[in-house]
Amino acid sequence: MQVIVCRDYAEMSKKAAAFVAAEMKKKPALVLGLATGSTPVGLYDELTALTKKGEITFKQVTTVNLDEYYPIDPANDQSYRYFMNENLFDRVDIDKKNTYVPDGTAKDPAAEGKRYEALIDRLGGADVQVLGIGQNGHIGFNEPADALVLDTHVTDLTENTIKANSRFFASENEVPRQALTMGMGSIFKAKKIILLVNGANKKQALATVLSGALTTAVPATLLNLHPDVTLFCTEDAVK
Ligand code: PGA
């Protein structure tokens, strides 16, 4: 894992955007794996600014998101589809039909997981996958557990994640109890991964990753097995 320690959130977002922009320039039809949460918002702002300046274009880019709540309607302002539209897709020149997020309205979530995994395979995996990390070390909705699931699947949210995400909902009760998420195997289909970690509240999880440990108790540690991961983190997440 290549480690890039940044002064603050603004610098982390700029450096991560420069990384993604360079990949987009190299391959205009990039398959870009995306994540939600507060961490990548600055990255999406920077990518929007670079697009508006004419330095990059999303015209040929395909995006594939990590996860989505289940069940949830895409029109719900807490859905990850809504988040992506607001924070990136509606602000850049991407063709929305080339943007994929697991379907939170699917009748059969297990079948939706299979369909989504087949889509990832059809795309040949992401060229670059953007990831954040949970305070408990989760990646997407791959929560700490005795065993992890390889492919895209439906999963129960842990109490820790329901609590952490309740800040975005009117109350904890409104947080969906399940999600559709890429599995670690789906994530590992990415050729390159960038992991963004901001803030002192992620310090413990990140320290476990950087220790080189491999444990499903901290799913992000499995990233130590991927051949091309670049970590962009803030100083307070590592010091
Ligand atoms: P955050 O969430 O970016 O809002 O901290 C990251 C995550 O839970 O994966």
Q: How much of the polypeptide forms β-strand, as a percent range? A: 15-25%
Strand order of the largest sheet: 1-10-9-6-2-3-5
Give the second-level CATH assignment, the architecture: 3-Layer(aba) Sandwich
Q: Could you name the CATH class?
A: Alpha Beta
Low-confidence stretches: none
- Rg calc: 16 Å
Task: Tell me the number of strands.
Answer: 10
**Helix proportion:** 25-40%
Shape descriptor reads globular
CATH topology grouping: Rossmann fold
- Which ligands are bound? 2-phosphoglycolic acid
* Largest sheet geometry: 7 strands, parallel
Description:
By secondary structure, the chain is an alpha/beta fold. It has one domain: Rossmann fold (3-Layer(aba) Sandwich), CATH 3.40.50.1360. The protein has helices at 9-26, 41-52, 80-87, 109-123, 159-165, 184-188, 203-210, 235-238, and strands spanning 2-6, 31-34, 62-65, 67-70, 99-100, 128-131, 153-156, 178-181, 192-197, 229-234. Strand 9 (192-197), helix 7 and strand 10 form a beta-alpha-beta unit. Helix 1 (9-26) crosses helix 2. The model has no long low-confidence stretch (mean pLDDT 97). The structure holds 2-phosphoglycolic acid. 2-phosphoglycolic acid is lined by residues 37-39, 132-134.
